[in-house]
Write a structure and sequence with these properties.
single chain, mainly alpha, 8 helices, rod-shaped
Length: about 170
């Protein structure tokens, strides 16, 4: 005689256990064959200003490439970020790139006094056209007359022109 264990509900316990194991195996197999969903960010969660701040933090830590990456991201929505790119390029000796970034900043935002002054300083320190440098420095001073750095740039370029015997263009 076949002896079966019957539970209180009237089911064969071996059969119930086997069904449970089969169901558990199917669920495990289905779960393991599914890929983990990827999260795709369609919009940058940081504002351009936050990218600049992050770039400044990286620059302070000496992580130049990370800073450049953040400034580049910021420049998509904030033309002033080109000044930061110009500054970091200047500090690493990439003068041609620095000049390009300052000029791009001026083109995108013509009232950006720092771009004019920094481009003037680059031309002055790297042997560029001093008359152009003086005109740029004067434009920076015109945009922000209270900045003493701009006055200093104008004065230094003006003195250099006088020493070379070239009168400044008024």
């Amino acid at each position: 005689m076949d002896k079966k264990k019957i539970n209180q509900a009237g089911f064969d316990t071996k059969w119930v256990g086997r069904c449970f194991l089969l169901l558990l195996s199917i669920v495990s197999l289905a779960a393991s064959s599914c890929a983990i969903p990827k999260i795709v960010v369609l919009q940058d969660p940081l504002s351009p200003e936050e990218h600049v701040n992050l770039g400044l933090a990286y620059e302070k830590k000496g992580e130049t490439q990370s800073a450049i990456r953040e400034y580049t991201q910021a420049a998509k929505g904030l033309p002033a970020a080109y000044v930061y790119l110009g500054n970091i390029c200047y500090s690493t000796g990439a003068y041609a790139e620095s000049e390009g970034y300052y000029r791009k900043a001026i083109k995108k935002k013509p009232d950006l006094a720092d771009a004019y002054n920094n481009l003037a300083w680059l031309l002055y320190t790297r042997g560029g056209d001093l008359r152009e440098a003086l005109a740029l420095a004067r434009k920076a001073l015109e945009l922000n007359p209270s900045n003493p750095h701009y006055s200093d740039t104008v004065n230094q370029i003006d003195e250099e022109l006088q020493q070379r015997g070239k009168p400044p263009v008024l």
